[in-house]
Amino acid sequence: MENFNQAIKRISTIDWSCIGNKQARSHVHLSKEYLRRASIFFQYYPGPCRYPFIIISNSITKSQVSVNELQILKEIDNSYVREIVTSYIELNALIDEGNQIAIDNKDLFEPAIKLYERGGLFFIRGGYLNVVGATDFLSLANRVKREPLDISDEILDALDNERIE
Questions:
Q1: How many other CB atoms sit within 10 Å of the CB of residue 51?
Q2: 67-82: average pLDDT
Q3: What angle do CA 113, 118, 121 make, to 5 degrees?
Q4: Side by side, which strands form the sheet with 128-131?
Q5: Which of 29, 63, 71, 89 has the fewest CB neighbours in a 10 Å radius?
Q6: What is the pLDDT of residue 74?
Q7: Strand partners, 137
Q8: Among 66-70, 88-92, 125-129, which is the least confidently predicted range?
């Protein structure tokens, strides 16, 4: 259960009371990359969920570990954020169980988790993703063809410090 435990440890370090209080250029960058990855995943494994809020247990399968009762999830008061974090933990449990779909999509939630670690938040309103005052139309079609964005800490820090556009 190495991936599962690492995921819980990582989530436990986030100050959930401060999510959305900070604005940074990296938040837009991370949100765009999460939407790209979610679009690709959703194309192959739609499951009954509302894009871009993928519910792993609906799209792939339930893990043998019950994650819904984890105390850390009860600290997250935003239902959409809680869905993404729950799915992130479920995905890691499935990786530990050897689920090939989970293994092939191990980095699916990385941009969203990095966004939360950096104090960011996105929300959906009227068919648009809103983050740091910017909006982006939620469309699956044009996202799957986009090039992946570099979400390394070096690039994210450079964006936030206005060293790159």
A1: 17
A2: 91
A3: 70
A4: 123-125, 128-131, 134-137
A5: 71
A6: 93
A7: 128
A8: 125-129
CA distance between the termini of the chain: 40
Query: pLDDT confidence of 137, banded at 50, 70, 90?
Result: low
Bridge partner list, 131? 134
pTM (predicted TM-score): 0.90
